[in-house]
Amino acid sequence: MSSVSFEAQRAALADVVAIPVTPFAADGSVDTAAHRALLRRLLDGGITTLTPNGNTGEFYALTPEERRLVAETTADEAGDRAVILAGVGHDLPTAIGSARHARDLGARMVMVHQPVHPYVSAAGWVDYHRAIAEAVPELGVVPYIRNAQLPGARLTELADHCPNVVGVKYAVPDAARFAAFARDAGLDRFVWVAGLAEPYAPSYFSAGATGFTSGLVNVAPAVSRNMLDALRAGDYPAAMKVWEQIRRFEELRAAQGSANNVTVVKEALAALGLCRRDVRPPSRPLPEDERAEVAAIAAGWSI
Question: Exposed, middle or buried, 93 (CB in 10 Å: 0-12/13-18/19+)?
């Protein structure tokens, strides 16, 4: 492991980490042509870190074959223009198989989705991530943490076994807890990614994050880049101006326990003529009377 440097991966995490949508065709299948066009739009918009098979990509609603297709299409379209951080998860053999598949496609990192299991022990969390990280020692590994009970010391324990654990996507909606977790785990040891996107980016950056995830970036890459530029400059008033600009859009996504998180993004893309609005259960398209508001927001950004 000592011969492997992860500087490029660390740099890619300290950025806008885009979570592309997975567009669907009229027959319900993955619309590969629309997917490629949306990926090109992100790349042309200056986005250099892509997470295929993230939650905004409806990871849990895709079949294993579709997840492979999404990863393959993303890697092919990105080429050397972006670093791929592929989402993996489910049972351990599936997660390891997906990680190796991503590696073979040229991905530089994997993001490990929070284990979906009613009984997650902190020690078992370490075991799960360790098995994945040890299976792909040449890839950077980024745990996606949504569990507020997980102590920072467990991340330290994981990284002591697996030096390829180089970053963390932290998605517990509590800035004080994030600040404490990062310091307990090792603030300078990992790249900290604000995993709850633009609404939380300013507060998490103030506590040590240097990158943030984004679903909004699918709609308006320039808006996300503007926030990153402000945060990198330490210009919090400028960052909060962007925050105000995106506030309503993100409130619509977060409402009712984030029921319409992906729905609102796809609705905005549909309003711009970029893909169909279709999402899969357990998500659902927006009702007709709520579509106009999303379309108006998206139109304002597309100028």
Answer: exposed
pTM value surpassing 0.85: yes
Q: Is 146 helix (H, G, I), strand (E, B) or coil?
A: coil
Neighbours of 117 (CB within 10 A): 11
Parallel/antiparallel/unpaired status of strands 167-170 and 16-18 = unpaired
SS3 state of residue 220: coil
Give the whole-angstrom CA distance, residue 269 versus residue 273.
Answer: 6
What's the CA gap between 188 and 233, in Å, rounded? 19
**Token digits of residue 5:** 């440097």
Buried b (16+ CB within 10 A) or exposed e, 25-55: eeeeebbbebbeebbebbbebebbbbbbbbb
Contact, 208 vs 182, CB < 8 A? Answer: yes
- How far is it, in rounded angstroms, from Cα 233 to Cα 255? 31
Q: In whole angstroms, how far apart are CA 162 and each of 91, 127, 133, 208?
A: 20, 11, 6, 22
Per-residue pLDDT of 248-294, as tens digits, reads 999 999 999 999 999 999 999 999 999 999 999 999 999 998 899 99
Give the single-character DSSP code of 45.
T
Distance CA 198, CA 302 (A): 18
